[in-house]
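Input record (one chain):
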Amino acid sequence: MKIATWNVNSVRKRTGNLVAWLQRAKPDVVVLQELKAQQEQFPKAEIEAAGYQAEIVGQKGFNGVALLSLHPVEITARALPDAVVDEPARYIEGRISTPRGPLTVGGLYLPNGNPIGTEKFAYKLAWMERLTQRARALLASEEMFVLGGDYNVCPTELDIYDPKAFAGDALCQPESRAALRKLLNLGLTDAVRALHLDDARYTYWDYQAGAWPKDHGLRIDHLLLSPQAADRLAAVGIDKAERGKAEPSDHVPVWCELDVAD
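The corresponding structure, as predicted from the sequence alone:
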C-alpha cells in the first residue's frame, strides 16, 4: 500500500498537476495540505474521476487539509483533540482496512511558527504537544498508523541546505526539533530516514532567490510510522520532479510503501 503526503499550496491552482501525479504515481492514500479552499471549492469531481474518494477539511483562503483514498475510508477525526471553535483546518484522519489489519492515516499541516518569540511560535509548540497526545492514543491501539504532512520542522542540520541561514527560523529552533523528537521517541519511525540515513533529501524549495535551480531546499514534509507500520516499510520516495513542472507547488510529494499483502 502506497501512502503519500503533499502540500499542494492551493489545490485550485494545482488541480492539473495533482490529477496528473495521481494517475502516474497511483498512491493508495494521499493526505494534502494547504488547500486554500473551502469544501465547495475543492475539485472533487476531478479527483473522483481519477478514482479517489476525497474527504476535505477546508478553510477560506488559508490552510485546509484533505484525505484521498482508492479504498473505502472511515474518517475518524477532522481536527486534533481539544480543538477550539474556529480553529484553523490543519488535521484529518481516516481508517482503512488492509489484509494485515486496519491502517490509520493522519494528515497534518503543522503551524509554521514564525516569528519566534511570538504567540505564533507558542501556538506551534502547543499544537505539536496535542499531536503527540494523539499519537499516544493511536499507539495504544497497537495498530498500523502513519502521520503524514507538512510538519514545518527540519529535524537536523542535514535537512537544510544552509543551516546558518535558517538559524533564526521557527522551522529549525531547538524547541521545534525537541518537540519533533518527543513525538518520534514515542516509538515512531521517520520513513525517509529509515531507508536514507545520511544524505540530504529535500521536500521544499522556496519560490524566491532561485532556490529550486540552486537546490536550496529543506526537508519539512514527513511520514512518521507506528512500529506496526514501520515493520512493513518496503520503500520510500520523494517525487522531486514535481517541483520542476509548470505552476508547481513549492513542496513535492513524499511517499512510502507498506507491505500489507496476505
